[in-house]
Design goal:
The chain is built from nine helices and no strands. By secondary structure, the protein is mainly alpha-helical.
Length: about 160
């Protein structure tokens, strides 16, 4: 006997499509390690690409799941990835370990399935995530400034040789 769902068929297919997209992004970026590979071979550009690919996670958390605490958790994970991405080479190795897309995918799935453990943990940490987002933005700005300054010194050094 088939189970009937309270969700209309059109909405079910939209939900499946968006979660399927999130899963595909996770597989490409974390399982196939495209995130650190892009960072190694296209510094700067790889970090922007990976940041842009987190937009579907944010859109899903804001518009489909309507959760501020989930959105803060996702943005926190993205900014942690961005902060490490500003550190040449070490940031790419961090990407192999961090797997931010996998974390975000688990969070979204936990909220979609109304997993009480995931939901309570994210809601409990939402103030922490909010504060850390502000701190991480500041650290990212400082890091970009110092990396840019360091590259300037390196370029000057080789030009003066």
């Amino acid at each position: 006997m088939e189970q009937t769902s309270n969700i209309p068929p059109a909405e079910q297919s939209t939900k499946k499509l968006s979660f399927g997209t999130l899963t595909t992004i996770r597989k490409l970026m974390d399982d196939l390690h495209l995130d650190p590979i892009l960072g190694l071979f296209a510094p700067g550009i790889g970090d922007w690409v990976t940041t842009i690919l987190t937009v579907p996670y944010i859109i899903t958390s804001v518009f489909k799941l309507k959760s501020l605490s989930l959105t803060l958790a996702i943005i926190y994970n993205v900014l942690m990835d961005c902060l490490w991405g500003t550190v040449p080479v070490a940031g790419d190795f961090f990407d192999f370990l961090h797997r931010g897309f996998k974390k975000n995918c688990k969070l979204v799935e936990g909220f979609a399935e109304q997993d009480p453990q995931v939901m309570s943990e994210v809601k409990r940490k939402s103030v922490f995530f909010g504060i850390m987002i502000v701190i991480l933005i500041g650290l990212i700005c400082l890091s970009v400034y110092y990396v840019k300054m360091l590259w300037g010194y390196i370029i000057d050094f080789f030009q003066n040789m």
